[in-house]
């Protein structure tokens, strides 16, 4: 691109640092899944026990020599570290190994680049990549010098490195400007949904927890779903009709991962705003994953980072088909509100329980009561019957109709406003026999 580095390939050695600090510990199994998702042909996984890191290589010089010999013997084109490398460490390791070196952030960015499909997603990936690359520009090329003596040999006043940095800054500004427009368009769409009083639900969770499979099962969509990390990158919104509640907007979002680099969260803020502005978060959890508690903590940490940690959350324990003896069911808190739903999105087990739990949690959007309709509103009465909202009907001595109805408030307001009436003016509080 803008700088000279060794070429990369698919034959890779994975280097995992096993430290003692649980706050920075990475999962080697997840690391291998990331590499496979990126398309790497894993030659070996080298585990380096390390409690203290070196400034030059991150690892010790003896391990560097050992890895160099392994790279030469296996003809490896790429070495991937399951850790964040500084730009200088990355360059030093590339000189020592004589091949391309990638850290955890670069690996995630490569997967994102492969998964991006929409224009917005590609812009977000490019912004994250440029922010990452900008700190890794190496020496300027020699064909552009700052100054040279003699006619016809005077340079443009900046080295190639400075030119590259300037071009990067210009491109980053352009992308941020475009993403600001995307953010503005999304905000306008959200305001339109709020005016129409349509609730929004966002699926969040650790990557590969089954969000897209659940999304497809609920909305009968064909969003790409696969047993790989970051199968979904671009957000997808679909309408979902729930009994009692009516239409809601369901959003499928990018999965989270432990120690998600901060610059990625910033680059994908336009997408993650779908979660931070939702009326309800559905946190999809892989019930079969041994590290599920740690994954839940990581998801909650990212939600806090994007300002979505105060929103109501319904936990969904997915992949029940991989567990023995646990039927689909709803767990409730001490007040009887739905707290967790156990289901299998792949087999379609427990989906009706999830819809029931969502409807209960969004119950504030539901009207259940008695309407007092004068004879002049016979047309409105017919519309309530046509909508299937009437639970019971009575008539008083004056001929006024008493309708016991149950329907979304947005639908009630829509029907009533056509007749120019305010619903509060003729709502009875008692129930019909």
TrEMBL record:
Summarize subunit and interaction data from the UniProt record for this chain.
Monomer. Associates with the 50S ribosomal subunit.
Coarsely, its chief localization is cytoplasm
The cofactor named in the record is: Mg(2+)
Q: Where does GTP bind?
A: 205-212, 230-234, 252-255, 318-321, 344-346
Keyword annotations of the record: Cytoplasm, GTP-binding, Magnesium, Metal-binding, Nucleotide-binding
Q: Where in the cell is it found?
A: Cytoplasm
Does the record carry Calcium as a key word? no
The protein's role, per its UniProt record: GTPase that associates with the 50S ribosomal subunit and may have a role during protein synthesis or ribosome biogenesis.
In the UniProt record, what gene is named as encoding this protein? Answer: hflX
Q: Which residues bind Mg(2+)?
A: 212, 232
Task: Report the superkingdom from the record.
Answer: Bacteria
Q: Which CDD domains match?
A: HflX
Please provide one cellular component term from the Gene Ontology annotations of this protein.
Answer: cytoplasm
- Show where the Hflx-type G domain sits: 199-366
Q: Which InterPro entries match?
A: EFG_III/V (IPR035647), G_HFLX_dom (IPR030394), GTP-bd (IPR006073), GTP-bd_M (IPR032305), GTPase_HflX (IPR016496), GTPase_HflX_N (IPR025121), GTPase_HflX_N_sf (IPR042108), P-loop_NTPase (IPR027417)
Recorded GO MF terms: GTP binding; GTPase activity; guanosine tetraphosphate binding; metal ion binding; ribosome binding
What name does the UniProt record give this protein?
GTPase HflX
